[in-house]
Structures are given as C-alpha cells and as structure tokens.
Protein 1
Amino acid sequence: MTTATRHPSRKLTCSSGSGAGKAGPALATLFAEAWRSFRLATWLGWQIESNWADPFLFAIYSIIKPLSGAAILVVMYGIIAKGNFTNPLFPYIYLGNAFYIYAGAMMTGVSWAVIDDREHYKTLKYMYIAPIRIPVYLLGRGVARFITGSFSVIITILGGVLFLHLPFDVTAANWLLFFLSLFIGVIMLAMMGLLLGSISLLLVHHVGFIGDAVAGALYIFSGAIFPLDVLPAWLRPIGFAMPITYWLELIRRSLIGEVAQAFPTLSGFSNGQLLGILVGLSLAFGAVSIVAFRFCDRRARERGLIDRTSNY
Amino acid sequence: MNSSTSLNEHPAKVTGWQLFLKTVIARAYPRIIGQQREKSWMFFDIVLPLGGVIAYVLVYKAIGAPAEYVGFVVMGGAMTAFWMNVLWSMSSQLYWEKEQGNLALYIMSPNSMMAVLLGMALGGMVATLLRAVAIVLLGSLMFQVQYAVTNFLQLLAVFTLAMAALYGMGMMTASLFLLLSREAWHLSNLAQEPIYLATGFYFPIKSLPFWVALGASIIPLTLGMDAMRQLVFPSGFKIGFLSVGVEIGVLMALCVLFLVGAKLLLGHMEKLAIREGRLTESRR
C-alpha cells in the first residue's frame, strides 16, 4: 500500500490543489490556505524582483527598460510620419505597446516561477511539500511581475502624455470600462501564464523561452502595435481567437475613445459586445489552464520532474 | 594493471601558444558543436528574433514606410542574435559559470583566461552566424527584401571588424561580471531595449540626434550596421551616419580598444575577485 493511498487527505490538503473531493478541507480553510499562498507568493515574488539592487537603481531599471521599448516605436513612427504624432495610428501603437507590458510580465512571470524555483533556487520540491496550493502560489508569483509591470505601464503612458502629445484626457476617459477591462484582463493573463507554467513543469531545456516565445507571438497576433488588418488574411483568425486582442481594444477605447475606433478591425463591435467576448474567451482559457495544470502536475509527479535540475 | 598504466601515461605536455590554442578550441567546441545538438535551442534562437522582425516590419507597413525600411529591420533582427549572444553568452557567462561551480576550475587550471574567453567568443560567433543567416534568409523571403551590394570587400571587412570589436567588448564586460552576482541577470536584461534603441537596430542611426548617435557608436554594432546598410541597400548611401571608410577606421580602433581592454581588465578583475573571495560565492 502506498503512502498516497494510506493518507489520501494529506495529498489533498498539502500541495497541488488538484483534487478537492469529499475528504477535502472545509471551504473556509481552503480559502484561507489559498489566500495565504497567494499573499506570501506575491511578497516572495516582489522580493526576488526588486531586492537585487538598491531602490534607486531598481527605479532606474524600471524606468529605462519600458521607455526604451516605447521609444523604438516612437522613433520608427516619427521617421516615417515626419514627426506628425496627431495620426490616430500613433496612440493606437503607443497604448497597445504600453499595456502589452502586462501581457509579457504576467505570462512570463508565472511560467518563469516554475523554472526559477525548480532550477535556480531548487525550492520547488519544498513548495510542493509545504501547506500551500501550488497553482495559487504560481499566480501569486505572477502578481509580483504585475506590480513591476504597472510601474512600467504608468511611466510609459506618462512619458507619452508629457512629451509626445498622446491624446489622453483624464476627464474624458471611461474609467469604469478601463478598470473593469483591466481587472478581467489581468486575470485572463494570469491564467494564460498558469497554462505556460503547467507546460513548463514537463519541459527542461530552454523551457524559459516559452513565456518569451508565446508573448512574442501574441505581440504580433493580438494587434498590439498595428491593426490586425495589416496581417495576411489567413493569419487574422489567430488574432480574433485571442482574448488579448479584445482586451487591448477595450483599454484603448476606454482611454482614448473615438481615436481607437478609427480602425476597422473591431469597430463593428460595441463595448458591451467586446466585454462579452473578452469574458467568454477568458473563461475558456481559464478552464483550459486549470485542466492543463492538473494534467501536467500529475505527469510531473509521476515522472519525478518536480525536483529535476538540468543546469539550464 | 591496465588502468594504472593508462593513468601513468600522460599526454605530451603542451605549453605556450599551443596550450593557448588548445584552450581556445576546447572552449569553442561546446558552442559550435554542442549547441547544435539541442534542436529546440536553435529553433528558439531563430524564432524569437524573427518574431521581433515580423512585428517591426508590420509596424512599418502599417505606417506606410518605404520598402527599404523592411530590409533595415531584417538586418537589425539578424544582428540582434549577435547582441543577445554577446550579452547572455559572453558578458554574463562568467556569472553562470560561477553559479554552476565551473569558474573556480577555470581559474585553477593552468591555462589563460583570455584563451577561455576567446574560445567562448569564437564559438559563439560561429554558432550565432548560422542563426543570423537563417533569420536573414527567412526574413528576406517572407518580405521580399531587395539587396544591391555595392562593394563585397568592404562589406566583408565591416562585418569582420564589427564582430571582432563586438566580441572584444563581450570579453571585456565578462571580466566586469566576475564581480557580479544576482544583479548580472538584471543588468543583461537591462542592456536589451535601450541598446536596440541607441544602436538603431530597427531604423537608421542617422535618425537620432548627432551626439546620441556618436555616443552609441562605442557599441560596434552601431557603426557596423550603419555601414552594412549603406553597402547592401540601393538607397543605403542616403541614410549613412558617417562614410563607410570612416566607419571602418573607427571599427578598427574599437577592435584594438576592446581586445586590449579585455586583457587588462580581466587581469585586474580576476585579482580583485580572488582578493574579495567572489569566485565561489553564490548570492542567489
């Protein structure tokens, strides 16, 4: 008789959260455990992200990197448009690029946590035997990237407003739509990150590239920095199947209103329809992520991959 | 008996330049041969820069840029492969070696650290060249880029000098990274977008203010790419920052500067790292 069969309740409460059945703890205990996992993982993630340097150096790091990324697009646009930043395409590109920082941060943040803990710190096995819930722990690690990503997004937008005449009017913005879209979008991105993290549990060599590769691909297909109509017609359906496409459109509409609707790709949809599509696709991706985590988690345990290191 | 005999049979002792050469070859080997064995690495090394190329080409198409700008992006995308290689596999390499416990072995072994760095550079250059060629071919086919090389000899000279100076710079910064720990990863990460911007990976460097472009010329890829764009694109001469001849001269000077700098700095940093006990530390 195996340990797992002799102590079924232990398996349920201690680690993966992959099966809360009749023998599972009460809902309140589950919630408390999940909240503790999430809170401590967020704190841990923030420490890992930020305490490698003094606050001043970290602030410079947080400012220079996103501003440079945005400046590449600004210079490219400026050369061709000969400095005419009033074209609606400019705010379309600028805001899409700024908010896409969240996509890169959240997706790579969650999936990288698996690599970081397993290969670098060699603590993933300890996390698995601690009284925490692993998926919630991984999502918490992603939240730390959300916090650092938020600095980048705010700084990038401030830079655009102050120096590039980004047509953003604080009083005209639809803040309710903005925060609602942002909230749904962040959860959606976290769940996509969990999907990548799940796959990372089963892979070794250069698995760290997965987050970058997916974020890079979605940068092209989600219409982040150009309208989807620029893509060849046969590639556009990929963009339409991605929730990030609708999320970025909602963010643009909420902040710069009519300017964002100057492009034909999604102009036929109302805000409500876009929200509906975003929620539907987010739920679909969320369900896929949960199923994927359960499958990958089980396979990783069966194959003894939780504590595998490869000197990446 | 056999084993003791074989243990007693020492290979001929190699010293001097022969040892230097053997070390260079030995350190280049895993980069040229070993890296090709992991096919997923090659795939990601090509696909990630190619993704950036596609994104920026489509931005130019959305803005309505002239066709040659597509070529500029394809070339820039290929050159990012070299920059990434220098950044992650040269500059921060000694940090990785320290993390894995190899650095102390390098220092203990009776060979030159310059030879180790040179082997890393040569191996990385050859392996990355394969990836860069693949990016240029795929990007050119995807977006029908037109090339019109005006002077093959100058093109070869520019590319060779740019690579020598770039990897020389990588060797020099590798010694600085000897003293770093966790921050090495973040500093390498930081040296991506700002360098893409300053060196004009995706647009002609002439578009930046003169003094900014001049300052960015300390990175060999800035003038290397500018000269190559002048030499391979029909309208390249219009966007040149300096003349090709001047850029070749500056690249030669940078080669000397970085290779000599690498030698001096490595000696100094190695002593400093030994004195401060940083060769085996692991501050994760």
Protein 2
Amino acid sequence: MIEGMKLTEGLSYEVMVRDRHGKVLERIVAPSQSYVNAWNQCLYVLNRHSSFTIIDTGGTGRSISYSSSVLRANAGAGEIGYGIRVGKGTTPVTINDYAMENPCGEGAGPEQFLHQAMAASSPAVAGPDCSFWLRRVMVNNSGSTISGIREIGCYVMMKYSPAYYGLGYRDVLPDPVSIPDGGSITVTYTLKVTI
Amino acid sequence: MKLPELWYSVVVRDHDGKVISRERRRAHSFLKQWNEFIWYFHFGGTIYPKITNGSPTKLDSHDNNFLMTGGEGDASLGIVIGTDDTPVAVDDYAMGTQIAEGYGAGQMHHLANTFGAPVVSPPSCGYSISRIIVNNSGGLITVRESGIYHQHSYRYGPVAYQFYFYYSCGVRDVFATPQDVPDGGSITVNYTLQVTA
C-alpha cells in the first residue's frame, strides 16, 4: 500500500476498497501520471473555438467541435460511456492511449461493477492551491471477488449527439486490488493548480 | 510527477525586427478561474468565478466558454500583458496593471491571437497560443507580466439564450526579467500547454 504521499500539485488519485460492511481494506494514494492526448486536444478545441479530430474510446478519429459538452464527466448511475472507470489493464500509460485497456463493464455479472453516479467537490482555495475532486463508487454485486483491478481512468464526453467519448486520464496502479463480493471500489481524482 | 505543463516564452524585437531580449520558462500560473472552468466543464454545477473586474459572476453553459481567440485590437480576450510585478497568487483575477489597446502613451497594439494545433510527440502532447503586441506609443514600455483572458458566459433573466459575455483570467505570470519594449518594437508572448504521460 502506498499511503501518505505528499501531493503538491497537478492530478492525483485515491483508491479505496471496502468490504460489504464498509470496512476499508485497502487505500492507495498516489500522483497521477496520466493526462493523455484527448484531454489536451479537447482544451484546444475549447480555447481555439475550432474543430479537431480526436480519437474516441472506440479508437475512431472523430471531428470534435467546441461545445458545452466537451470534457463533461458527470455521468449518472450505470452510465459508463463517460466518468471514472476501473479495469484490469496493466500496460503502462502512454500519451497516445485513447481508452482503458480492459475496463470492467456495468452490471452485476461476472467481472462487472455497478457504477454509481459521479460526484464532485466544488473548487476550493487553500494557500497557493485551488483544487477539486471527482469521485465514483463502483459496487461489486457479481457474486464473487473481482480481482486484478489494476487500471483507473476517466472518460470524458467530447460530443453530445451523436455521443463520442474520449479518455481524459488513465493510471496503472502499483499493485492489483481485489474487491470482495458486496464490496466496493471508490476512485477519487483531485485536480489541482498551484502557484 | 507528470503534470499539465504550461510554458511561456517572450521575445522582444526592436523596430527593425531584431531580437533584443528573450525569456522562456515554465509557468506556474494557472489561477483559480482556470480550475473553476475545468470543474464546470467536467461537472457542470453552479459556480461563480470572478470576471476580470473582480465580480463573482455565474458561469452558464455556452459554447463560447473558455474561448481565447481575441482578434486584432481586442485586449479583453486571449494573451494580455501588463506592467505590474506583484507576485502571482492563485486567486488573482486579472492582470495587475494591464496595458490597454491603443497607440497612446503606455498603450500597445494587440494583434490577433494565433494557435498552434496540438502536436503529439511522445510522451507529450502540446498546443500553443501566441500573440504579437506592438508598441507604437512613442516611448519605451516596460512589460512585467502576461496572462490569458478567456470568455465567460452568463445568462440573465427569464429569456432563454439571453447571454452576456465577460472575461476571466485563467493564467498570469510575472516575468523573471522586466522586458523593455522600445517604441516601434514588439513583444511576442507564446504559451504552450502540454501534458505528458
């Protein structure tokens, strides 16, 4: 377990695994390594007010134009097109990643999680920092332990209709985690700017 | 730790186009408003970022939010510069003392912002925004700060789509060395936003 690392700025994550009673079994806190192409390309589209071809989570280049839907991550319960996801991929992050390597699906079947609605804090200033967090709880009601969870990330909306999604950031955990049946995994990303 | 990196470069030229000063370094200058806009795009709740006059102003959903494409003569949007050297604080909401658009004393002429499209060069992906600002004031102007203003949309009243457009400051930097721009000369400011896996 990596715990108590000092996080000074940028993007960081926390992963909490709980059993069916809510007891914390594992906690990982670490700096993220993981903004990828689509994140910056979406910012460019917004700043430049233009269109740009961005690879979506299916691996297809899509022409994305500026809109209020770009970068949206506030997915509701059961929505896995965007928002925070977890998976079993182990390949290190590269700037060209466009999707999770092996994401877990939505549901109560084998290797599936029930994805709860995304939550977020409001941006808050503390000294030289301004930060907010995004969080998602994913519950394992599959009937058995889901082991080998090794990657986390956040999909963002790039276009509302037709809906296209992109990978904003992705991380590979230092060690795999296992979520018991009835338990949950909570992933929290903190986005911070620091002077 | 790999972070979103913001770099700026400043090039000062005399009236013949000769480069007389340069500065390039990593900026540490994303402000509160920047993160508030990212939050808004990410999550879409109610938030009141400060606009450049210091007033907290509700941010409403509009395609123009975060726009930085200020045109020629427009010193309210895109890269801006100023004369103040007060250190940057995360809750700054404007340039310390912005240089106004024009040709009078202490004023400079802002050319259009230009963009460099995102370029992937593993392990990084970056894009740039640049602006040339010309001094035709008749005297030397010392520039000590730069930043980026972006569009902020506010919907007022019961009428749908009755929008008002303001500006928020997302980025501010104080130069390591004050840059003297002679009469007839120019300053080119370039910001590069880069992410690295």
